[in-house]
Amino acid sequence: MLNMNEVYPGIFRITERGVLGMLKPPVNIYVITGKNGLVYDAGYGDSNSIRKFSKAYKEINRICGERGYDNHIERILLSHAHADHFSGLKNLRKRLGFRVIISHEMKKIISSSRVYRESYAPAKKKIKKTFSGLLLYFTKQVIQKFEFMIYALYWGVSFMDDPDILIDSETKIEINGEEWEIFSSPGHSGEHITLFNKDNGILFSGDNVLKSINVWLGPPKSDLDQYENSLKKMSGLPNLKIILPAHGSPVLKPYERLDEIISWRKKRTDDIVGILRDASPAGISVSGILERLYPSDSRMKKEFASGWIELTLQKLEKEKIIIRDKDYYFYNNSI
Question: Which percentage of the chain shows pLDDT scores above 90?
Answer without folding.
Answer: 79
